[in-house]
Design goal:
- This protein is α/β, with parallel strands linked by helices and 350 residues long.
- The protein has one domain: Glycosidases (TIM Barrel), CATH 3.20.20.80.
- It is 39% helix and 11% strand.
- The chain is built from eleven helices and ten strands.
- It has helices at 4-17, 73-85, 115-127, 156-172, 202-218, 229-232, 236-239, 257-262, 266-280, 297-308, 330-349, and strands spanning 30-36, 51-52, 55-56, 90-94, 131-135, 178-180, 222-226, 245-247, 288-289, 316-319.
- The strands form three sheets. It has a five-stranded parallel beta sheet.
- Helix 2 (73-85) packs parallel to helix 11 (330-349).
- The protein is globular.
- The chain starts with a helix and ends with a helix.
């Protein structure tokens, strides 16, 4: 296990790297990593399961909403330093409760960063050649960071608060290219152990999703969202505005659709096929891989999507390790970044 001392040393090395921008890929693509500053985006109760993914026993409780920030700046600096070193050019920051939003300071927790401190960090990232992009997850499965508003979904106070927060983030980030809205995994199955469950269906889901798209565009940012709603709702391809940048995701090793079907993994087959379906429907994409389940997924995601997606609509790739920015999971986060770096290096040699 990587210790805190290991990451302090790594952070010092990253600091020594200074503000110098690393050489960037010549292909014009986004090479991004999703990293977490906020973490109150998974549930609003104490999880009773003894294991979930790589989390075991007491570690599972880290997935629950907390009254303090769970983020290590030394680990963050080490990871972002490595991103610059390997030639990546974008960091998507999962914000949640990590920032003290000017319009709604009541959403802050112990340790939330004030705006001045956060803007200094954004300047540091830009100086390193990393474009910082905000992510605020508005899926009802991942919005415990909204505190009381988490239980006011689709009401007037909810809309006002979310609109305020979108404007705050646009200003804090100096009107970035994108705002990632999340909007994934809003299902009954994934909320069955929550103390409070709410899932939007039908026209209400569409009303709220399109409302968020509109608010993001009014604030001068391009909306970006996970694509998994399309897996069970094929009409998504026709109804979703083409302005929404799509990040379909799939984290396993097998990309053969027919093989997956033959193995009874029909859900995985749909997820893999969706890269091609989104492209045919005219969407621009930043496909997302991960080292959550295996260590060859990211490279295979790039290989697969280059085959099935049109070059003009394939705008880049992102890794989403889904480990908190803490010393105990720093090694896995770093490995995810190195997997992207290996692909970037390979692309440059072609």
């Amino acid at each position: 296990m990587t210790t805190r001392r290991d990451f302090i040393c790594a952070a010092a090395a990253a600091a020594a790297f200074g503000g110098r921008a690393a050489a960037k890929p010549s292909d014009g693509l986004v090479w991004a990593a999703l990293l977490h500053m906020g973490t109150n985006m998974w549930c609003d109760h104490v999880v009773t399961r003894q294991s979930w993914g790589p989390f075991k026993g007491e570690q599972v409780k880290l997935l629950c909403a907390a009254d303090h920030i769970r983020f290590d700046e030394g680990v963050w600096r080490a990871l972002t330093g490595r991103m610059a070193e390997v030639g990546m050019n974008m960091v998507v920051i999962d914000l949640g409760e990590a920032v003290r939003y000017p319009s709604h300071p009541e959403l802050a927790v112990e340790g939330s960063w004030d705006v001045d401190r956060f803007r200094k960090e954004l300047s540091r990232l830009r100086a390193m050649g990393l474009e910082p992009i905000p992510k605020m997850n508005f899926s009802t499965t991942h919005d415990a960071w909204l505190k009381e508003y988490h239980r006011m979904v689709s009401t007037a106070p909810y809309y006002k608060t979310c609109s305020d927060l979108i404007r705050d983030v646009a200003e804090i980030f100096d009107h970035p290219r994108f705002l990632h809205l999340g909007y994934d995994e809003e299902t009954e199955e994934l909320q069955k152990r929550h103390e409070y469950c709410v899932v939007r269906h039908g026209e209400l889901w569409w009303h709220d999703f399109l409302w968020f798209v509109g608010e993001t565009e009014k604030a001068g940012m391009r909306p970006w969202a996970w694509s998994d709603y399309s897996w069970k709702h094929p009409h998504y391809l026709a109804r979703c505005p083409k302005s929404v940048m799509q990040s379909n995701w799939y984290y396993e090793s097998e990309f053969g659709v027919e093989k997956l079907k033959a193995a009874g993994k029909h859900g995985d087959a749909v997820a893999v096929r969706m890269y091609e379906e989104l492209d045919k429907a005219g969407f621009e994409q930043i496909p997302t891989g991960s080292n959550w389940s295996c260590d060859d997924n990211f490279a295979k995601t790039v290989e697969h999507c280059r085959k099935v997606c049109s070059p003009e609509r394939l705008k880049g790739f992102m890794t989403a390790p889904w480990y908190f920015t803490l010393p105990e999971w720093g090694k896995r986060n770093m490995e995810a970044i190195d997997q992207v770096g290996a692909v970037v290096k390979d692309q440059q040699s072609i």
